[in-house]
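ok so I'm stuck.
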Amino acid sequence: MLKVWQAAPGILLDELPLSYDSTTMTTIKQIDVLWLPKRSIVRAFEVEHTTSVYSGLLRMADLVALQPNIHIRLHIVAPAEKREKVLQEIRRPVFSLLEGRALSEMCTYLSYDNAKDIGELRHLARMSDEVIEDYEEAAE
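replied:
not stuck anymore, here's the structure
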């Protein structure tokens, strides 16, 4: 069952503590969720509930195209019935042509069920972002 989440004071940021050019910042601000320990992005999540999977992947690809040396993990979060579509889109040839490496090497699928399981972990607040690796699925 879904519920409305209310952030505790100090959890969400009003301004991003990042120093990228304005085009990159515009792209970053369009991404649904960022995992920011201190002043750097370690993970970015696009939640695809009502929009197409492709639009979220385009934002991720835009970020990588604008910042080819960026080393963050990218995730598409979607319902289980969109799993195959997400993995298929991540493997599209156009996303394999990004400078440095293919989007499929940086971006994974995370189901709503797995995201819910992560959210219910007892010590989540004290865990590293690597906990996601136990739940994500790569497009092979």
